C-alpha cells in the first residue's frame, strides 16, 4: 500500500500511539499489569454515583434521552450546555462570555489537532509557522498533532532545586523570544507530565508576550481551573479575548465521553466550528447532556473542589511518601514538586541507561510507566536530561501503586549498580 505524506506521518511510531497501545494491550493480555503510564482518571465512587443518578434521570425523561442518542448537535456543540457554561463562568469569574465563545470537540486531542493546524504550518503568505511551547517537558499528545514537520519549538526550562529531593521547572523568559514564525503560544496548567503549575505572574507574562506578537495564548486546562481543578495550591483562572482556554470533562471522571471544551473569541470559535463540521460533522452529545445539570447549577465546581481535587492531592502525597520510602537514599533521584494533575515526574540524574530502556525493563516486570523522552517536543535529542526522567501515574488502587513504586525503585537501583 502506497501512503500519502499524511498517511506516512500518522501511521509511524509516536509517543501517544505507544502509550495508548500499552493501555489497550495490557488490559487485553494475560499478564497482570500495574498501569502507571496512562492518564486514565481514578474511579472515585462518590463522583461516579453523581453521574449514575444523572443517567437514571435521563432515562426517565424521554425528550432528553431522545436528544442524547438520536439528534445531531451543531458543529460547535450542544447549545444549552454551552449557554449555561457561559453563564456559569460569567457569574463565577466575570468573564464576558456567551455560547458563541464556546465550542465542544470530540475530546481535547481532537480540539488541539484542529487548533494547532489552523494556527500553524504552511500559510497562504508563504510562511511556515510553528507552535511555541514556553517550556518542555510538555504533553505527549501535542508532539505529533501537526500536519507538517518542524511544527513545534520549545524553550528549555530553568531547573530549580528544592528541599526534600524535589525540584521545579520554571519558564526561562530570557530564553523565550517568539519570532515572526510563531502562530501561537501553548502551555498546559497543570502541566502533563510533571504536575507543574505555572504561576499567575507567568501566565500574565505569557499573555503579554502573545499580545505583543499578535498571536493567541492557548492555555490547556484539562486538569486545571475551573474544573476539575486538580491544582493543589493557589492558581487563579485566566481568560481574555486573546486566550484560547481548553478544558475537558475527562479528568472529572468522564474520559469515555470524549468531551473537549474550547473557550475563545467568536472569530476563533467560528473557524474551529467550520473545521469541526468538515472533520467530524458534529460533536457527540453524551458528555454535554450528562454534565449539563452540574454546569447549570454550578455543582460541577463544588464537585471538583470537594471530591475530585482532595482525592488526587491525597494520592499525590501518598505517591511521594512511597518513593521516599522505597528509593535507595544514595541514588541521585529527584521528584518534581507535585502541584497538580495526577502524575509524579521522577528525575534520575546521570542515569546509566536511557529512560526508554528503563521503561522496557519495568514493562517486562509488569509495571507500565512512560519514558520521559517523549515529552520534550521541540528540544533537541542532545540534552541528556530528557533521557533521565519518567512519568508515573498514581491513579490506580493503593496496593498497586505501592507495588509499582517498589518495583521502579528496584529497577532504578539495578541500573545504577550495573552502571
Describe how the helices and strands are arranged:
Layout: H1 5-11, H2 15-28, E1 34-35, H3 45-59, H4 62-70, H5 79-93, E2 102-105, H6 108-119, E3 121-122, E4 128-133, E5 152-154, E6 158-161, E7 166-170, E8 182-188, H7 200-213, E9 217-220, E10 243-248, H8 250-253, E11 260-263, H9 266-280, H10 286-297, H11 299-326, E12 333-336, E13 343-348, H12 355-364, E14 367-368, E15 370-371, E16 389-393, H13 398-418
Parallel strand pairs: 1-14, 4-5, 4-8, 7-12, 8-9, 9-10
Antiparallel strand pairs: 2-11, 3-4, 6-7, 10-11, 12-13, 13-16, 15-16
Helix pairs in contact: 5-10, 6-9, 11-13
Describe the protein's architecture and organization.
This protein has 13 helices and 16 strands. The protein is an alpha/beta fold and 419 residues long. The strands form 3 sheets. Strands 2, 3, 4, 5, 8, 9, 10 and 11 form an 8-stranded mixed β-sheet that branches. Strands 6-7-12-13-16-15 form a 6-stranded mixed β-sheet, with helices on one face. Strand 6 (158-161) and strand 7 form a beta hairpin. Helix 5 (79-93) packs parallel to helix 10 and helix 6 crosses helix 9. The model has no long low-confidence stretch (mean pLDDT 93).
Amino acid at each position: 500500500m502506497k501512503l500519502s505524506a499524511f498517511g506516512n506521518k500518522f501511521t509511524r511510531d509516536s509517543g501517544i500511539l505507544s502509550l495508548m497501545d500499552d493501555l489497550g494491550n495490557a488490559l487485553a493480555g494475560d499478564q497482570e499489569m500495574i498501569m502507571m503510564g496512562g492518564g486514565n482518571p481514578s474511579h472515585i465512587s462518590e463522583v461516579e454515583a453523581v453521574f449514575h443518578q444523572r443517567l437514571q434521570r435521563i432515562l426517565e425523561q424521554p425528550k432528553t434521552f431522545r436528544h442524547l442518542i438520536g439528534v445531531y448537535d451543531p458543529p460547535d456543540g450542544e447549545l444549552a450546555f454551552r449557554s449555561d457554561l457561559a453563564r456559569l463562568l460569567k457569574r463565577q469569574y466575570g468573564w464576558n462570555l456567551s455560547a458563541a465563545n464556546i465550542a465542544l470537540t470530540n475530546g481535547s486531542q481532537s480540539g488541539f489537532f484542529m487548533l494547532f493546524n489552523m494556527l500553524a504550518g504552511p500559510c497562504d503568505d508563504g510562511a511556515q509557522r510553528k507552535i511555541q511551547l514556553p517550556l518542555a517537558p510538555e504533553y505527549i499528545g501535542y508532539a505529533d498533532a501537526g500536519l507538517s514537520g518542524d511544527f513545534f519549538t520549545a524553550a528549555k526550562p530553568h531547573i530549580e532545586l528544592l528541599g526534600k529531593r524535589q525540584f521545579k521547572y520554571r519558564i526561562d523568559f530570557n530564553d523565550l523570544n517568539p519570532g515572526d514564525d510563531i502562530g501561537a503560544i501553548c502551555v498546559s496548567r497543570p502541566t502533563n507530565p510533571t504536575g507543574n503549575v505555572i504561576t499567575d505572574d507567568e501566565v500574565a507574562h505569557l499573555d503579554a508576550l502573545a499580545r505583543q506578537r499578535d498571536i493567541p495564548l492557548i492555555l490547556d486546562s484539562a486538569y486545571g481551573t475551573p474544573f476539575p481543578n486538580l491544582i493543589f495550591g493557589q492558581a487563579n483562572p485566566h481568560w481574555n479575548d486573546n486566550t484560547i482556554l481548553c478544558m475537558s470533562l475527562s479528568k472529572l471522571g468522564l474520559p469515555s465521553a470524549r468531551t473537549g471544551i474550547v473557550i475563545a473569541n467568536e472569530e476563533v470559535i467560528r473557524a474551529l466550528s467550520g473545521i469541526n463540521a468538515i472533520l467530524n460533522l458534529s460533536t457527540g452529545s453524551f458528555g454535554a447532556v450528562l454534565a449539563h445539570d452540574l454546569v447549570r447549577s454550578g455543582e460541577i465546581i463544588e464537585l471538583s473542589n470537594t471530591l475530585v481535587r482532595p482525592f488526587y492531592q491525597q494520592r499525590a502525597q501518598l505517591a511521594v511518601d512511597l518513593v521516599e520510602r522505597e528509593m535507595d537514599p544514595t541514588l541521585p533521584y529527584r521528584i518534581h514538586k507535585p502541584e497538580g494533575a495526577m502524575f509524579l515526574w521522577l528525575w534520575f540524574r546521570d542515569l546509566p541507561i536511557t529512560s526508554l530502556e528503563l521503561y522496557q525493563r519495568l514493562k517486562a516486570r509488569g509495571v507500565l510507566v512512560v519514558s520521559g523522552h517523549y515529552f520534550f517536543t521541540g528540544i533537541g535529542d542532545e540534552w541528556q536530561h530528557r533521557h533521565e526522567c519518567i512519568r508515573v501515574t498514581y491513579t490506580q488502587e493503593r496496593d498497586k501503586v505501592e507495588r509499582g513504586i517498589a518495583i521502579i525503585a528496584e529497577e532504578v537501583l539495578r541500573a545504577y549498580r550495573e552502571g
